[in-house]
Design goal:
The protein has 89 residues and is mostly helical. Helices cover 73% and strands 0% of the residues. It has a domain at 21-81. The chain is built from three helices and no strands. It is elongated, with a radius of gyration of 17 Å. The relative contact order is 0.16.
């Protein structure tokens, strides 16, 4: 990848670059939660489509891991929302 090629890290940096730490924590926790939810939806659909196929166990395992990630990231999102915000100057 070249420096001009967008990456996940570039996206995260752009998302949080100008934010105070509390707002960056909220943005990152929200991003992780939404990404986890989409991964869960994708893997659930693929696991359903792959029933009784050789690839089914891999999709089912990913679905289970993604479900756990959704739950954990929801907790992170909720905890980030509780952080005291810095007063604006």
């Amino acid at each position: 990848m070249t420096e001009s090629t967008p990456t996940v890290d570039n996206f995260i940096e752009a998302l949080t670059a100008e934010l105070p730490p509390e707002a960056a924590a909220g943005a990152l926790a929200g991003l992780v939660n939404r990404a986890a939810a989409r991964l869960h939806t994708l893997s659930r659909a693929q696991a359903s489509a792959a029933r009784e196929q050789p690839e089914w166990p891999a999709w089912a395992q990913l679905q289970n891991a993604a479900r756990a990630l959704v739950l954990q990231s929801s907790t992170c999102r909720d905890l980030a929302a509780r952080l005291p915000q810095q007063p604006k100057p």
